[in-house]
Design goal:
Blueprint lengths: L1 H6 L20 H10 L2 H5 L2 H15 L3 E3 L6 H5 L5 E3 L3 E3 L7 H5 L4 H6 L1 H13 L5 E7 L1 H10 L7 H9 L1 H25 L3 E6 L7 H22 L5 E5 L15 E4 L5 H8 L4 E4 L9 H15 L5 E2 L12 H14 L4
């Protein structure tokens, strides 16, 4: 598989490409299936429909990897928290984690077992996906999940969860450790079900100052990647912390690919990490509104990476819901064309 080879830094005929949130609302075909499912969570929990929307961007756009259709928040939901998706507001946990009793009520083994619908989705996808196309499985980073679990919803201030970090760090570490244990089991079961690559998303990485980031987020991400690499060394692991360009000197660990967000200069990531890890990214997602901007962005990334084997093309975050499908196709084909090797 070209994508797996690229993750491991092996020679490839061109630089492979996929997009975060590629199975999503910009595709009319996705919206049809979502409407049939009734709501977002129902779609996540329906293996047949989740399989269908996972495969759509592979068939429509020609990307080099499929990414499992699911949501990072199914994990805390199956740990025992009520989860709602409120139209116009996003995910909501009506009863966030506040006390030790709340924390102790969360399950670990039971949660990993309850996520069987995700494993069934993976088995269905792998059965239908072309043999040369990789399937990426994923989870949210412990810090990102814990943020939702404590705040109860998305936040701009992170006031509740950061208050815990500085006023009750032991509680925060207990919560993060418990979430990490579930994620290790969850990703292991994804591997056993058929994923070819494992990815961990840390969407809220930029919320923390440097020392706090490494203590309360990166160390737990490393624990997951080390666990997976020790047991499944052939499965590449991608870590994606969003918005920590100032901390790159301290990035270390047993993983294969570092995801570079759009706010981190690719030149900087290459200088600091390019010898240690394959880099993934980092096209500015809003460039996809304009074919001229797409061409400029792709050419700059190709020039920066000098068309070598240590890069995977991607957006620097998820594709936006109103991007024209024609532009997404253009981005994919142009990146593949401009990186062809003699």
């Amino acid at each position: 598989m070209i994508f797996v080879d690229a993750c491991l830094g092996k020679p490839t005929p061109y630089t492979p490409i996929w997009m975060m949130r590629q199975a999503g609302r910009y595709l009319p075909e996705y919206m049809q299936v979502r409407e049939q499912a009734g709501d977002f969570l129902s779609l996540c929990k329906d293996p047949q429909k989740a399989c269908e929307v996972t495969l759509q961007p592979v068939d429509i756009l020609g990307v080099d990897a499929a990414i499992l259709f699911s949501d990072i928040l199914v994990v805390p939901m199956e740990m025992g928290m009520e989860l709602k998706f409120v139209k116009g507001e996003g995910p909501l946990f009506p009863k966030p984690i506040e006390t030790l009793e709340d924390l102790e009520a969360l399950s670990v083994l039971e949660a990993a077992t309850k996520l069987e619908y995700v494993y069934e989705t993976i088995r269905l996808i792998r059965g239908k996906l072309a043999a040369d196309k990789a399937l990426i499985g994923f989870c949210g980073a412990p810090w990102t999940l814990a943020t939702y679990m404590v705040e109860g919803q998305g936040t701009k201030t992170y006031a509740k969860v950061k208050k815990l970090i500085y006023s009750n760090p032991d509680f925060m570490h207990k919560l993060l450790a418990k979430v990490t244990e579930v994620l290790k089991l969850y990703m292991e079961r994804q591997i056993q079900s058929g994923i070819n690559v494992a990815m961990v998303f840390d969407s809220w990485a930029a919320a923390l100052e440097e020392d706090a980031y490494f203590e309360f987020s990166w160390n737990y991400m490393k624990e997951i990647s080390s666990y997976l690499k020790a047991k499944y060394p052939h499965i590449p692991v991608i870590l994606f912390p969003k918005g920590i360009s100032g901390y790159l000197d301290r990035i270390d660990g047993e993983f294969d690919v570092f995801g570079v967000d759009w706010s981190t200069p690719l030149e900087l990531a290459r200088e600091k990490l390019g010898d240690k890890y394959v880099l993934q990214g980092n096209m500015e997602p809003t460039r996809l509104y304009s074919k001229t901007a797409i061409k400029e962005g792709v050419e700059k990334i190709v020039q920066t990476m000098q068309n070598n084997n240590r890069h995977i093309f991607n957006l620097g975050h998820g594709i936006l819901p109103d991007i024209p499908v024609e532009n997404a196709k253009y981005f994919i084909s142009l990146a593949q064309e401009l990186t062809k090797r003699a």
